[in-house]
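User: Some background: our group keeps a shared notebook of sequences we're curious about, and every so often someone picks one and asks for a predicted structure to add to the entry. Today it's my turn. The entry only has the sequence so far, pasted here. Could you supply the structure so I can complete it?
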Amino acid sequence: MTGTITHECNLTQLVFMHGEETKYEQKLQVSELEKGDTYLRYTEALDDYELKVTVRLGDNFVKLQRRGIINMNFHFEEGVKTDTFYDSPAGRHHFEIVTHELTTGDGTLNIKYDLFESGTLLGKYKYTLERI
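Assistant: Of course. Here's the predicted structure to add to the notebook entry:
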């Protein structure tokens, strides 16, 4: 186990829903810790709330955990359908994730995925975390 390194990063999230694209961008301080896998930790703003985020970079998979006003654990593995629960003030949802692209390296994490609920496509997403 090594010490924690902090990086300045850009977080970009593209959401394609109902024929429209929405883009969310934030500059973040990301702590990186090596403990078998690589763990990235940061605080993300969501409206007036803060979410504690942990990203685990494993061999051929990424786990994204958010804690705060919403609680979620997303598991991304390219070409694999995974399922998860998403808790928010609106209640608990059961989602399925289909990961189309998962790339890491050179200080960049890219994930392209589709999100489904009860077999219905809710949206297409692109998550990019890039070291500045």
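Suggested note for the entry: Residues 5-131 form a domain with the Lipocalin fold (CATH 2.40.128.20). The mean pLDDT is 94.
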